[in-house]
């Protein structure tokens, strides 16, 4: 079993995992089950599926991105350096376990990349009138791919009603180690591009 983190906690990924190379970052969430009353039964429907998209921002030592190619997401699945690979978009969040996964080869992350920020936003949130208050059981976890053992997991248990984007956590270099910080910061950014503006794009 990995370490369960709370918001704001930080751990070293490499201190107790010497030679850590490839890791899988899994992100998951579930749509809150709606209780359908008589009107819901008569008129059908319910809300459209909530399409959450996980992405990675590759930041420099100033916490900035200098190019949109430094975002790995469903439209750019592999970083130019080859160290980060997004495994594809999950449109509904259905099913158990991870909804989206990102593979990171820590030994191949370029030296000028000091931090990897993992974010989740709701696709077309404003148009669909959706927000993270409609999501439950959100988490981010890291697995050592050489052993298939979970290193850590952070359950995002806060109430995020009205928020449309979530900065889940960050993996960063510090004194020769790779560390992870549990962030759990929610914003009202309604697209990946507006979220990216926080980091200089």
Which class best fits the helix and strand makeup?
A: mainly beta
Number of helices: 3
- Secondary-structure element order, N to C: EEEHEEEEEHEEEEH
The CATH homology group name = sav2460 like domains
**Spatial arrangement of strands, main beta sheet:** 1-10-9-3-7-6
Quaternary: single chain
- What's the shape? globular
Q: What's the number of extended β-strand segments?
A: 12
CATH fold label: Lipoxygenase-1
Q: Which CATH-level-2 architecture? A: Sandwich
CATH class: Mainly Beta
The level of helicity is: under 10%
The rounded distance between the terminal residues' Cα atoms is: 38 Å
Main sheet?
A: 6 strands, mixed
Mean pLDDT: 88
Q: Measured on Cα atoms, how large is the radius of gyration?
A: 17 Å
Tally of individual domains: 1
